[in-house]
Amino acid sequence: MKEGKRDKESVTKIQTWIVDIDEGTKDEQLDLIGNSPLLPSLVVESVHGFHLYYLATSDLTQEEYETGNQ
Most exposed of 11, 23, 28, 29 (fewest Cβ within 10 Å)? Predict the structure, then answer.
């Protein structure tokens, strides 16, 4: 980020995608994670579900991140 701002224009590179899963039972959520075509780099259990972290293999630009997010 540039100058500590937290807005789209300040992003200089993307290193991680984050997904927050809160719907369904934890067993259903784990099945969803396990059956995903892209397994996360890290899974953290939260109160209502899981946070999934996908580490980029290289720094991404804002445009590349947006394309990948779609």
Answer: 23
Domain tally, the chain:
1
CA 47/CA 60 separation, integer angstroms: 31
> What is the pTM (predicted TM-score) of this model?
0.70
23 found inside a domain? yes
**2 falls within a domain:** no
Distances (CA, A) of 2 to 9, 17, 31: 9, 19, 39
Q: Which residue has the tokens 């067993």?
A: 27
Cα 24 to Cα 52: distance, rounded to the nearest angstrom: 16
Tell me the C-alpha distance between 7 and 37, whole Å. 30
